[in-house]
Design brief:
The protein has eight helices and seven strands. The protein is of the alpha/beta class and 203 residues long.
């Protein structure tokens, strides 16, 4: 997992609440086991018109938000099924930060496991970020994990809360596997002791 400290970038404003994981990445695309290749299908149903063409009114199809690394959206983001593919799709598309008034718990944990920073801010502040992104061409936001702050090019600076353990893991790029491997010597010693019969002396 890529270590995270600070991201400054464009904001894609997704002005919708209760966005579920099937909307983030439709179930039809969950047939692969790799973590990559999902970005092109992110929000696919909303990005496309019934005739298959891209909907020019959807935020990710707007040239102004091309290359955005921060997504600002509504409350209860990531609700629905527990599919980790939703976090994979956001990351593969290029998002490193999602800012919302609230997240579904499993989705938020999947973000932590995949190097995405889910930032919870008061609804009025998120609303301001969304509106600024919609109105200004060069609007940028900085999410600083070391300082636990979000700031923007309009003068906003606000702190956010994050679990200390999750913060440490993101700062060092540790996922569950890497945390386990940090204990490799202890695991090897345990396995060796467990496999040695009582009273056996190795020659």
């Amino acid at each position: 997992m890529e270590a995270y400290s600070r991201v400054t970038g464009k904001v894609a404003p997704l002005d919708r609440g209760d966005v579920d994981t099937d909307q983030i990445i439709p179930a039809v695309h969950l047939k692969r086991v790799e973590r990559s290749g999902y970005g092109e299908f992110l929000f696919e149903r909303w990005r496309s018109l019934p005739n298959g063409e891209r909907d020019p009114d959807f935020v990710l199809n707007d040239p102004r938000f091309r290359g955005a690394t921060i997504l600002a959206t509504g409350r209860n983001f990531g609700c629905g099924s527990s599919r980790e593919h939703a976090a994979w799709a956001l990351q593969d598309y290029g998002f490193r930060v999602v800012i919302a008034p609230s997240f579904a718990d499993i989705f938020r944990n999947n973000c932590y496991q995949n190097g995405i920073l889910p930032v919870v801010l008061p609804e009025n502040i998120v609303r301001g970020i969304v509106e600024n992104a919609q109105a200004a061409v060069d609007y940028e936001v900085t999410a600083d994990l070391e300082q636990c702050t979000v700031s923007d090019s309009e003068g906003l600076r606000v702190e956010f809360a994050i679990d200390a353990f999750r913060r440490e893991c993101l700062l060092h790029g540790w996922d569950t596997i890497q945390l386990t491997l940090k204990q490799e010597d202890l695991i090897a010693a345990y396995e060796q002791a467990r496999d040695t019969p009582p009273g056996y002396t190795q020659r």
